[in-house]
From TrEMBL:
Alphabetical list of PANTHER family matching this protein: PROTEIN YCEI
Organism this protein belongs to: Mumia flava
Protein name: Polyisoprenoid-binding protein YceI
InterPro entries: Lipid/polyisoprenoid-bd_YceI, TTHA0802/YceI-like_sf
SUPFAM superfamilies reported in the protein's UniProt record: YceI-like (SSF101874)
A UniProt-annotated Pfam family: YceI
Length: 178
């Protein structure tokens, strides 16, 4: 079993990245969400631990201002009426000392679907400021259409401009609450 201190862990936004990748014509576009709050509450039985996250959809950043504005629009996230997406875990499955599956509910635009994140525990240790940190990396993929995000532009040969599959990669450090 992974050696994780029991307690409440808050993700450090300066050392955490919530990123995504989506197919665009013949390439891929990558982006991140710059504003979020996320927390893990670990228990003596790691499989009863919980995780939550709230992500500010207006903080999407793909490196292109026009594309980011389009993502915030009603074609995609509709941030005026749906400002955030949320994740709430429902169970934790332990695969090894450092590998877990975090099962939970992801809500985007008032649509909630179950997702499974493959989580790698990267370790726990003290930081230079007297705190205790853990590192994790989590991956999953979702169908954007499952969440009512189905804007697209048809292309020649039965192709579309934007892929349906969204790959998500979360790398982060969380700090034990004092």
């Amino acid at each position: 079993m992974a050696d994780i201190t029991v307690g409440t862990w808050n993700f450090d936004p300066t050392h955490t990245e919530i990123g995504f990748t989506v197919r665009h014509i013949m390439s891929k576009v990558r982006g991140t969400f710059e504003k979020f709050e996320a927390q893990i509450v670990t228990q003596p039985d790691i499989t009863t631990s919980t995780a939550t996250a709230t992500i500010d959809l207006s903080s999407v950043n793909t490196g292109t201002a026009d594309r980011d504005a389009h993502l915030r629009s009603s074609d995609f996230f509709s941030v005026e009426s749906h400002p955030s997406m949320t994740f709430t875990s429902t169970s934790v499955l332990q695969k090894s000392d450092t590998a877990f599956v975090l099962v939970g509910d992801l809500t985007i635009k008032d649509v909630t679907k179950p997702v499974e994140l493959a989580v790698e525990f990267l370790g726990e240790g003290k930081d230079p400021w007297g705190g205790t940190r853990v590192g994790v990396e989590a991956t999953t993929s979702i169908s954007r259409k499952d969440f009512g995000i189905d804007f697209n532009i048809p292309l020649e040969g039965d192709k579309v401009m934007i892929g349906d599959k969204i790959s998500i990669l979360i790398t982060g450090e969380a700090v034990l609450a004092q």
